[in-house]
């Protein structure tokens, strides 16, 4: 049974303040996005999560409880990020004790809460204004619950009665209000193509553009399309707005290939779009007994595709400055496997002059670069790419700005920006002393920047198509540390 059909049948039956320890970010007065664990490898082409709906029959038969879902995901399937469905704890959005217990169990198993899929909080596109208002409030409660669990997103539906245009106007109104709440929590609000007008790619893209919030996006599902729809073209249209992806599956051939979706083709669309976040296994099976096999087959398909992606090679060997050339002074040392930059000098905004930096021996054109870094208080630094030697590398090529500026509005000079070119869509940097992850995808003129697991820049640039990768040590007050610098040439 499809989730939306199950919802219709159970709708009638469904009618009947400091939870957790604050992070250092919260203590500093900055609302932090969902944290990534130190053990989480953000350099992967994508990460795999498990949607709770994959075990719907097991849960409905009471063989598994929502509180045990995180443990089950890890122990049975080796998946350490879970995506909840509100139907399985639909009266718990404001239950602090329950949410605290769920969070405790996740932490005990080393499992991350990824998102909550909300199906029972009413129609955000309802005709009646009071009904829409009530639905928004219920969704806000679920968003607060998701934030408390450490989720990066809340998934909602675009449902209501009327023409597609009438529903669109109401959905834009409701989601604009929810996106404001999401921005305050620094987490994402996403809509899945989940039947009705939402399965029309052009319709859903028009909603994205009108709400126009960096905290609002799509959750492309590989299924949930009408029989005559081109799912590959639709997913391609969704990808510029994607903040999560759902790998729908259900039927497999004797070799373990999904028969309704060409997975290599559709995942190429996902990855070519620059997406590097979670891909959630959402498999279907006829019986509870068949659900584990369906999950494992879907995970195996995704792992095979992931293993076929280019493998990034380390530019920093963890021992010395082999492969790097210091430019214009400053101090660079390797301490306990970490590359440390101090005492930078001579930096200015003059495009004709350079300051101190560290460059690679080789030049690179098209590539995917991954860097993990942390900074001291007040530090200014950067990651250069496609840069030349004759002038300021931030202007011959590009600089992804690194600064100690958690919680500040995005800017062309703020963290995650392409310095003096474009601001990031949002500032996801963490406070001084915490590790951050930058990913740069450069293919021709298309430039994409990810900060801490989410794309924040997707633009085109006309500067040099090839040059050096570099690391900046800016001034005597700044200290920057790099522990991983990886690059895969395209």
In short:
The chain has about 500 residues and is of the alpha/beta class. The protein is about 30% helix and about 25% strand. It folds into two domains: about 5-305, TIM Barrel; about 315-490, Jelly Rolls, CATH 2.60.120.
Structure characterization notes:
There is one protein chain. The chain is an alpha/beta fold. The chain has two domains: 3-307, Divalent-metal-dependent TIM barrel enzymes (TIM Barrel, Alpha-Beta Barrel), CATH 3.20.20.150; 313-489, Jelly Rolls, CATH 2.60.120. Helix content is 28%, strand content 26%. The protein is built from twelve helices and 21 strands. Strands 6-5-4-3-2-1-8-7 form an eight-stranded parallel sheet, covered by helices on one side. Strands 9, 11, 12, 14, 17, 18, 19 and 21 form an eight-stranded antiparallel sheet that branches. Strands 10-13-20-15-16 form a five-stranded antiparallel sheet. The two termini are 42 Å apart. The model is unreliable at 1-30 (pLDDT under 50).
């Amino acid at each position: 049974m499809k989730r939306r059909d199950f919802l219709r049948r159970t709708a009638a039956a469904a009618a009947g303040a400091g939870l957790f320890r604050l992070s250092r970010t919260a203590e500093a007065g900055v609302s932090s996005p969902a944290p990534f664990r130190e053990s989480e490898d953000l350099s992967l082409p994508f990460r795999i999560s498990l949607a709770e709906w994959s075990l719907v029959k097991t849960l409905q038969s009471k063989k598994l409880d929502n509180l045990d879902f995180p443990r089950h995901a890890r122990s049975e399937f080796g998946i350490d990020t879970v995506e909840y469905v509100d139907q399985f704890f639909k009266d718990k959005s404001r239950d602090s004790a329950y949410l605290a217990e769920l969070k405790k169990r996740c932490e005990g198993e080393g499992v991350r809460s990824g998102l909550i899929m909300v199906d029972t909080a009413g129609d955000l596109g309802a005709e009646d204004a009071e009904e829409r208002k009530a639905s928004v409030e219920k969704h806000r409660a679920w968003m607060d619950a998701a934030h408390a669990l450490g989720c990066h997103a809340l998934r909602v539906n675009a449902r209501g009665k009327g023409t597609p245009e009438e529903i669109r106007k109401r959905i834009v109104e409701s989601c604009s209000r929810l996106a404001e709440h999401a921005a305050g929590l620094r987490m994402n609000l996403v809509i899945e193509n989940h039947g009705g007008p939402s399965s029309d790619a052009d319709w859903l893209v028009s909603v994205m553009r009108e709400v126009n919030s960096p905290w609002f996006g799509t959750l492309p599902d590989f299924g949930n399309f009408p029989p005559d729809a081109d799912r590959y073209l639709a997913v391609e249209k969704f990808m510029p707005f994607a903040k999560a992806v759902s790998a729908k599956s259900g039927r497999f051939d004797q070799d373990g290939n999904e028969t309704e979706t060409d997975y290599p083709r559709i995942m190429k669309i996902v990855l070519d779009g620059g997406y590097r976040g979670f891909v959630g296994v959402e498999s279907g099976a006829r019986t509870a007994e068949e659900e584990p096999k369906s999950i494992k087959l879907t995970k195996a398909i995704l792992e095979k595709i992931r293993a076929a992606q280019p493998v990034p090679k380390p530019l920093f060997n963890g021992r010395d400055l082999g492969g790097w050339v210091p430019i214009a002074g400053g101090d660079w040392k390797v301490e306990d496997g970490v590359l440390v930059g101090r005492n930078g000098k001579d930096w200015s905004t003059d495009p004709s002059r350079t300051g101190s930096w560290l460059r690679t021996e080789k030049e690179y054109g098209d590539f995917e670069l991954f860097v993990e870094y942390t900074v001291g208080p007040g530090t200014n630094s950067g990651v250069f790419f496609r840069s030349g030697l004759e002038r300021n590398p931030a202007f011959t090529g590009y600089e992804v700005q690194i600064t100690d500026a958690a919680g500040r509005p995005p800017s062309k000079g703020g963290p995650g920006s392409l310095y003096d070119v474009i601001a990031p869509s949002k500032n996801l940097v963490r406070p001084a002393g915490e590790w951050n992850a930058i990913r740069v995808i450069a293919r021709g003129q298309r430039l994409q920047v990810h900060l801490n697991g989410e794309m924040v820049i997707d633009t085109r640039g006309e500067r040099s198509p090839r040059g050096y990768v570099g690391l900046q040590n800016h001034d005597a007050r700044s200290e920057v540390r790099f522990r991983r610098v990886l690059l895969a040439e395209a």
